[in-house]
Automatic annotation (TrEMBL):
It catalyses: tRNA(Phe) + L-phenylalanine + ATP = L-phenylalanyl-tRNA(Phe) + AMP + diphosphate + H(+). Its cofactor is Mg(2+). It is found in: Cytoplasm. CDD domains: PheRS_alpha_core. Keywords: Aminoacyl-tRNA synthetase, ATP-binding, Cytoplasm, Ligase, Magnesium, Metal-binding, Nucleotide-binding, Protein biosynthesis. It comes from Oceanobacillus piezotolerans. Binds 2 magnesium ions per tetramer. This is Phenylalanine--tRNA ligase alpha subunit. It holds the Pfam family tRNA-synt_2d. Tetramer of two alpha and two beta subunits. Residues 109-340 form the Aminoacyl-transfer RNA synthetases class-II family profile domain. One of its GO terms (molecular function) is transferase activity. Mg(2+) binds at E256. One of its GO terms (biological process) is phenylalanyl-tRNA aminoacylation.
């Protein structure tokens, strides 16, 4: 039996040394150490040995089992390391190859326009103010000289939530709130960009949701000439130093006198073309001197303080500046359109 055990050890170690894959190693383990393996079969005959021989044969059998197990484990480690090295070699990365470009987004054209306008007015001493998009009837209308049943309310078709709550139709309520915040004693300059909502049919030049930027300057001795100078600076910075402006009389309930501002057409330089409909001018925004009633309702003494206000639509600014002919383009999220203005 000792000779059998030694023969099994020698045979097993030789086969293990020759193996080149882990699956064959597992087969060898079963062949020699399994329940029906060679070593197990030999050990089943130990019952025929004498009491003196059994311990000696048992010790030899354990040594053979340990030798085969140790050899199997060592060989498995060698084969696993070799397989890993082969895999790493096959999956190696050439660090000299150029990297794959990563597509990144950029600011939306309207966002860029709003930020550009904000930077311009911040440079002129204005602060940025914000307010709620769900507004009260009082701040959206009454505080702006539009009492109940005022016919001018029909100029702004409104989304009402309740009789007293609505989606704001302009950002002017932020102006009314700011004046009330300063309690009629503090001069200030502010602009208020934000979304506004009106019951309008969407087409190439209209949208039920759009953005507005309104400005307000309240102080002592504010004059119409201050408004004109501010708007002239804005037009030249936004559209070019060669742009001219003109102010035309108009009507807004919250300003008196009221004006609309046109800029000279950049296509024809004022000569008249299809873009400006032959006039040489393009309407761009409205403004005027703050109505005394609005100042008084906000706590400012109209005998001491005066001010001017103006309002513009960033969509219209962007359409004129970049030649966009359909306002809906800003909202349809066509990447081909949007990516043209990442550097805008």
């Amino acid at each position: 039996m000792k000779e059998q055990l030694e023969a099994i050890r020698v045979e097993a170690l030789e086969r293990i040394a020759e193996v080149e894959d882990i699956k064959t190693l597992q087969d060898i383990r079963i062949t020699y150490l399994g329940k029906k393996g060679s070593l197990t079969s030999v050990l089943k005959g130990m019952g025929k040995l004498s009491k003196e021989e059994r311990p000696v044969v048992g010790e030899i059998a354990n040594k053979v089992r340990d030798a085969i197990t140790t050899s199997l484990e060592a060989k498995i480690e060698v084969l696993e390391n070799a397989a890993l090295e082969k895999q790493l070699e096959a999956e190696s990365i050439d660090v000299t190859l150029p990297g794959r470009p990563v597509k990144v987004g950029g600011p939306h054209l309207l966002t860029s326009i709003v930020e550009e306008i904000e930077d311009l007015f911040i440079g002129m001493g204005y602060e940025i103010k914000e307010g709620p998009e769900v507004e009260t009837d009082y701040f959206n209308f009454e505080a702006l000289n539009l009492p109940k049943n005022h016919p001018a309310r029909d100029m702004q078709d409104t989304f009402y939530i309740t009789n007293e709550l609505l989606l704001r139709t302009h950002t002017s309520p932020v102006q009314a709130r700011t004046m009330r915040e300063y309690k009629g004693i503090k001069p200030f300059k502010m602009i208020c960009p934000g979304k506004v909502y009106r019951r309008d049919n969407d087409d190439a030049t209209h949208s039920h949701q759009f953005t507005q930027i309104e400005g307000l300057y309240v102080d002592k001795n504010v004059r119409m000439s201050d408004l004109k100078g501010t708007l002239d600076t804005f037009a030249k910075k936004m559209f070019g130093e060669d742009r001219s402006i003109r102010l035309r009389p108009s009507f807004f309930p919250f300003t008196e006198p009221s004006v609309e501002m046109d800029i000279s057409c950049k296509v024809c330089n004022g000569e008249g073309c299809s873009v400006c409909k032959g006039t040489g001018w393009i309407e761009i925004l409205g403004g005027g001197m703050v109505h005394p009633n609005v100042l008084e309702m906000a706590g400012y003494d109209p005998q001491v303080y005066s001010g001017f206000a103006f309002g513009m639509g960033p969509e219209r600014i962007a359409m004129l500046k970049y030649g966009v002919n359909d306002i809906r383009t800003f909202y349809t999220n066509d990447v081909r359109f949007l990516k043209q203005y990442h550097q805008a």
